[in-house]
# Entry
Amino acid sequence: MSTQSETAHLQLDEPVLKRGSWLNRARILVALLVVLALPWYVYPPVAFDILAWGLFAISVDILLGYTGLLSFGHAAYWGSSAYATGLVAIHTGVPFPLAVLAGMLVAMAIAVPVGWLSVRRTGIYFAMVTLAFAQMIYFFANQWRDVTGGENGLQGIPRNFFGMTLVESDSFYFYYVGLAFVVLGALVAWRVVNSPFGRVLVAIRDNPARARALGYDVDRFKLVAFVISAGLAGLAGGLFAISHGFASLQELDWRTSGKVVLIAVLGGIGTLWGGPIGAAIVVLLEDKLASSGFDGVGIITGAIFVIVVLLFRRGVWGTARHYLGAELMARRRRN
# Structure
């Protein structure tokens, strides 16, 4: 079944919860309270991993859920930004926001030629082309040992922040500074998908031939969406590298691309809330299983993914929103 037909049902949920409704305001308030309280109940580095992976999943959802493009190589932008951020931070000593900005720009620069060549393909061919480019970048990073550290990666990435020792040395305070950048990235994604540009992306996802007949340059819209998505993935990857203090080949590995797709699908594609929810489930589950000494983390996460795909095709958040919307519509009819 094609990606277009898989995602076509998503637009059915959109009229249920309108922008500016009390329910939207309530869930935004709840989400803010949850992310603000998270490091009080979860180990702060793990809490920040949830934020970073959540933003990474949002970037994938812009392509998969709103444009109908399944990228299996998005680790290229997450990882290249992690390396670029680390190199800038190590060699210049600038505050980490500037290093992360540099990493994000590098990811977007790489995405321009890759996207230009990839968006001319659809379905499995698009996925394979993006995977091939990601593997080329992985190979390049592995061979350029003098700069990237090869298999050892970049160690000791500083967390400079205008001389504020608490932020630079304590993960708890760094969480709240990093949270501001993650929220900014999420707002950019929200603005993109709720703009006329985002509506065109949905039209391209549902019926590219009709969008082309209406006069839209489909390939150009796909390319812009691809570069924006890469920029958000780069922002998440740079923050992730700063949080951990290192960047390794794992950030460029194809399994990282698969993991973020799993998170996006698990949370629910076609809804920006699904990515952070899927990230929270996967990161917390991995942390608990690893802490308990269980070696088969992949077996558990894989089993959960299969169950969700088979029983909840809209993902966790997508399913909850669907039934909540159905209940609200039923109440309106009764009233």
Notes: Residues 1-17 have pLDDT under 50 and may be disordered. The chain is about 75% helix and 0% strand.
